[in-house]
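Researcher: Structure for this, please.
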Amino acid sequence: MRKAALNNLKGRSIEQRPEEVKKRDEYGNWEMDSVVGSGKACLLVLTERKTRQEKIFKMNNKTQEEVKKVIDRIEREYKDEFSNIFKSITMDNGGEFLNKDGIERTCLKDGKRRTTCYYAHPYSAWERGSNEVANKLIRRFVPKGTNIDKLKESEIKRIENWINNYPRRMFGYKSANQMVI
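Model: Predicted structure, token format:
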């Protein structure tokens, strides 16, 4: 635990997040976490703060390199729109998220910033509450102890689609997909 706290002194505290991120006024501010199982593989879960839209990706293991690979893959998919869609990402202090520069710097344009990272306080999962709720929804399909190595991409996308089409009382029973439009 001490190593994570020391290494993360370079990261921006959640206290430095702009007011519009806190208020959930604009689309493009995300929360990120990992869901682990019994095998080496895990899920990287991104939750958009305003709409609760989910993006779920399988990682081969819970490492900084795997997180960077997934973020790079997302950037290649969205290209120039990435910075508008992923304005900021708030995460916990897990070892897999300590490569702030790897997450923030683009893989397409000579290392310019593609997003801004913020780190929640240690042991404060409530600071990423939307993401924690999403993780509970994922656990309906992937209970603790499940070997994520065996999950197929199609199963992960089915879970993601289910969550994104789940009606939410807070949105007048509209889904995240309906809120994004």
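Researcher: Any notable elements?
Model: The radius of gyration is 16 Å. The chain has eight helices and six strands.
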